[in-house]
Amino acid sequence: MTFKRFAEIGRVALVNYGEDYGKLVVIVDIVDQNRALVDSPDMVRSQINFKRLSLTDIKIDIKRVPKKKALVAAMEAADVKGKWEKSSWGRKLIVQKRRASLNDFDRFKLMLAKIKKAGVVRQELAKLKKETAS
Amino acid sequence: MAPKSVKSIRNPELIPGVRKCSRSQMYHKRGLWAIKAKNGGKFPQHEKAAAAPAVEEKPPKFYPADDIKKPLSNTRKAKPTKLRASITPGTVLIVLAGRFKGKRVVFLKQLSSGLLLVTGPYKVNGVPLRRVNQAYVIGTSTKVDISGVNLEKYDDKYFAKQVEKKQKKGESEFFEADKKEKNELPAEKKEDQKAVDTSLLKAIEAVPELKTYLGARFSLKAGMKPHELVF
């Protein structure tokens, strides 16, 4: 029932609207009730509305408004990238990107692979059914 | 912009229409006085070409009654359609219209009319050496190695319709003869198809699953959004 993810300094969030859509950013300061100052190794530090952020489980240990170098070091120390890519949310996004970038030929090969897999599964299932029936 | 040669300007334009130096100043600057002095007081001129004797024009025998307007001359030469950057020789294309719609086909070259020369290959999907308009085609990013194919003899004339000799007006004979002639493809064209396809097939079989890919037709399935698909 209680809240678990807080919009606090050090919270890693995903931008879900606007120019920086899809980026992982760190909340570096709170401006007011609606906006946060947000920073990431590959972007200029800027303010963003909380509505444009989706909070993640990851939190790093930083002081209020750290210098870029300190931010990068803290992100490395906490292994934000690694944790994100291992999390189920992160993995889902990676899969989505991969699927969107598939070539027409890739999609064809994927279809053949799916059919093959389904065939193998069906065979095994038929075997098991036979065993239980007999 | 064309590269400007950085030479010193003798007579710069100060304001549009107003130059720095006067006529006499320019005469001095260009050194025309020195050239004249060198050539004995006169500016050297090359001899005029001897005038050709005037041709005698006879008055015309016939004047037309009305003035006919001459159409304006047009020296425009049409260029072949600009080929999309995604379409290079060896690209697999998806044909979108006509008898072979949905077929995945190998692009060979662009002909001088702008149409694309394309082949199935015939054995793989039944598409022969054929011309296709670029507008009715999706270029995929799959490429086939086309280096072993000689395409020099294929141009628009190769695909021109065979001109039939004029038939005499016997109705029943007319229809029968027509039907028989249309069905046959000359053996030469079949040989050309084989010549192009054999080297292509080798390149295609080298890539796993490419042959079945070319044999299958493309279609939009549920959930596929063409503007979001990467081809």
UniProtKB/TrEMBL annotation, chain A:
One of its GO terms (molecular function) is mRNA binding. GO terms for biological process: ribosomal large subunit biogenesis; translation. It comes from the Eukaryota. Gene3D superfamilies: 2.30.30.30, 6.10.250.2270. It holds the Pfam family Ribosomal_L14e. One of its GO terms (cellular component) is cytosolic large ribosomal subunit. Residues 45-117 form the Large ribosomal subunit protein eL14 domain. Keywords: Ribonucleoprotein, Ribosomal protein. InterPro entries: Rib_uL2_dom2, Ribosomal_eL14, Ribosomal_eL14_dom, Translation_prot_SH3-like_sf. Belongs to the eukaryotic ribosomal protein eL14 family. This is Large ribosomal subunit protein eL14 domain-containing protein. It comes from Salvia splendens (Scarlet sage).
